[in-house]
Amino acid sequence: MQLRLVSWVFITLNLMEYVGSQQNPSRVRRQGKCKADCETCFNRNFCTKCRNGFYLHLGKCLGNCPDWLETNNHTMECNNIVHCKVSEWSPWSPCMKRGKMCGFKRGNETRKREILQLPTTKGKPCPHTTETKKCIVPKTRCQTRQTGRRSREERRKNQKTEESKENRQENSGRESRRQNRERDNKSKTQLKKRRAQDKQQKPVATSTVH
């Protein structure tokens, strides 16, 4: 604990110097004046970017991060370990069974919680987010849907009604087609009769020899 406190005091002092160096760029140390494992720094004892293969931590370049930290291979820094965080449990849901709240006596209640913070590589993994427990309620009859014999009879009745409607439509179509054929035949018969009458009434031409 004392070591960490000393480290934070050290980093604070160097950061104050770093802020001053930003206001006066001439104070920033060049690459040649940094330590061998440091690429850029603002004094020899405080690095701002390490060379490849080293991780930056409190201005130092380390080959491996301390056990209480974890490596970040993207930034090449030693970062704090972040554990998973979850919300409080939600209230228990109503007693249900197969998505319904009626028609049963024994069911299940469920509660959930949300993940607020995902863990880092070394962090504690997230616990389960759903819990279920048994529940017993007074059995009530479902009113939204008919069941049993009454439901089957209702389906058969509806089916017969649909079949009867289809039969009436089909019979009506047949009757309409029959009437159309009769009208066509009657028209053809009348046309033949008129032609025959016209043929009989036409005068026959005769020739006279003198």
Automatic annotation (TrEMBL):
Gene Ontology CC terms: extracellular region
Predominant subcellular localization, coarse grouping: secreted
Keyword tRNA-binding: no
Pfam families: Furin-like_2 (PF15913), TSP1_spondin (PF19028)
Domain R-spondin Fu-CRD: 27-78
UniProt KW keywords: Disulfide bond, Glycoprotein, Secreted, Signal
Domain Spondin-like TSP1: 84-138
Biased composition (Basic and acidic residues): 150-187
Keyword Secreted appears in the UniProt entry: yes
Matching Gene3D superfamilies: Hormone Receptor, Insulin-like Growth Factor Receptor 1, Chain A, domain 2, Thrombospondin type-1 (TSP1) repeat
CDD domains listed in its UniProt record: FU
Protein localization: Secreted
Chain ranges passing through the membrane: none
Protein origin, superkingdom: Eukaryota
InterPro entries: Furin_repeat, R-spondin, Rspo_Fu-CRD_dom, TSP1_rpt_sf, TSP1_spondin_dom
UniProt-recorded name of the protein: R-spondin Fu-CRD domain-containing protein
Organism: Podarcis lilfordi
